[in-house]
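Q: What does the assembly look like in three dimensions?
Context provided by user:
Components: two
Sequences:
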Amino acid sequence: MLSTAIENPEARPPSGPVTVNAGSTAEGETTGFEPKMSARGVNFYYGPKRALKDISLDLPPRMVTAIIGPSGCGKSTFIRLLNRMNDLVPDARLEGEILLDGFDINRPACDAADLRKRVGMVFQKPNPFPKTIFENVAYGPEVNGLRDRLALEERVENSLRRAALWDEVKDRLRESALGLSGGQQQRLCIARCLAVEPEVLLFDEPCASLDPISTAKIEELILDLRRQYTIAIVTHNMQQAARVSDRTAFFLMGEIIEVGPTGRIFKAPRDRRTEDYITGRFG
Amino acid sequence: MNTTKEKLIKLLFAAAAFSSLALLAGIIIVLFREALPVFSFVSPLAFLGGESWYPTAEPPEFGVWPLIAASAWVTGIALVICVPLGVGSALYLHELAGPRQRAALKPVIEVLASIPSIIYGFFGMTVMAPFMQEAFGLPIGLCALTAGVILGVMATPTVASIAEDALGYVPRSFREASFALGANRWETLVKVIVPAAGSGISTAVILGMSRAIGETMTVLMVAGGAAVVPSSVFDPVRPMTAAIAAEMGEAAVGGEHYHALFAIALALFLVTFVFNIAAELISRRYRLKLGLAR
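A: Here is the predicted structure of the complete assembly.
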């Protein structure tokens, strides 16, 4: 069942030493894939405050997993654990395991910088560097050791094309990235992320500060990127989750209430609280 | 009733706010009025470029080049000291020090800024100068190098604190973006944070320079006082501020020497004015560049 479900045999993740609960989520719902990333029994504390309670969630490969929930439910905290961005938070503590291809990303031998090359992140507010468009995209490959000018130019062009921005910026690569519109800046940030050639893309409310047209472009882009990357997107916009994701997890007060195929979650939620949230009774 | 009172209060505060403008205008007017007569007895070129400053000789000579050169040397040496020290401490405080270290170090740096300059001068005369004399085998320890080093130490807190503010203005999101792309702390610092704070750091350096060039008491005490164009850092020198402070008391009001000293003051004023305007322009452009509101 596993092998037939994967369209491209190369895509099969290498099996790691940790036995993962292949093909099923914490809820026992079958995804048909060995997860690209998975959280196992994750608790996360900011000082004494427990922000995440016993989270287990799989990110199936080449699928978009949406994480929805009201403000302060821990969805951003969770996604930031997947590339160890919370390492920067003082007094924070993690329990449980987060696996990438079956390996614990928090094991001592795992370097955070190396992990972040494989697990890229796009933030809530577009955050291009105050550099040129070219330099922004070239930054990641450069710090990762790509020095050859031609290769770098090619990488920048490809990344901008993949982020559907090339045609808009190809004549102004040497201009400041801050001259771009908000939506363009966010696509630039996506291009910058793609330039590092990650395997997983994390989107932390990528459209929170964008207008509807820019939002539509980003969503279109996510649907396109899904064919090549494993994607997780945090959003408080339920329509967005419905439009772009294959699977949806509903977070509430640091816990996962329900997770499953997006269509099922929205049409037939099993938990009363999920239903209340998606029908707009709270949040 | 009430509105009259309000108007009065508004007027009072407006007067307070505009008084600095009036004072600035007054200072500029007096400076120009007292400085310009100098050109009735010495040409601008001979004044600025002349290498002999003998204001009390007969006939007097008013070439201020030795004083300008002294100020430039001393300020240059001060920069060599205060830029690495100041920017280095700002980077350390902002990027590397833990919260506890920062809480301890920051006030110490600020105290350094609040020490009266006479104490620096005193320290320079009694500790630094004998040390220099010993270390370099000089006939006298009061020289451009001693003055420059002390001025550098004095300007360090200015540079450190403004540079640290500049680093603080760099949005956290730049740092996060850099880390998320697999850059380490060092790469993030060198390639993102420092360039982003670059013009803010230049502002810090310019203001530090402005602080050094205008400092009087210290240079009066430790620079050596010789109005000769310096040929080495070990020469005793007489910077512009020291010349004014030392000679104003003995210059007859309205005399040639008096006007010449005012002309030096005017030159000094213009230099620091330009420095400060430049610093302001750079920091404005910088905040604009970072997308911060002015």
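Follow-up: The interface with chain B takes residues 83, 85, 88, 90, 112-114, 116-117, 120-121, 123, 125, 127-131, 139-140, 143-144, 176, 178, 189, 192-193, 196 of chain A (CB under 8 Å).
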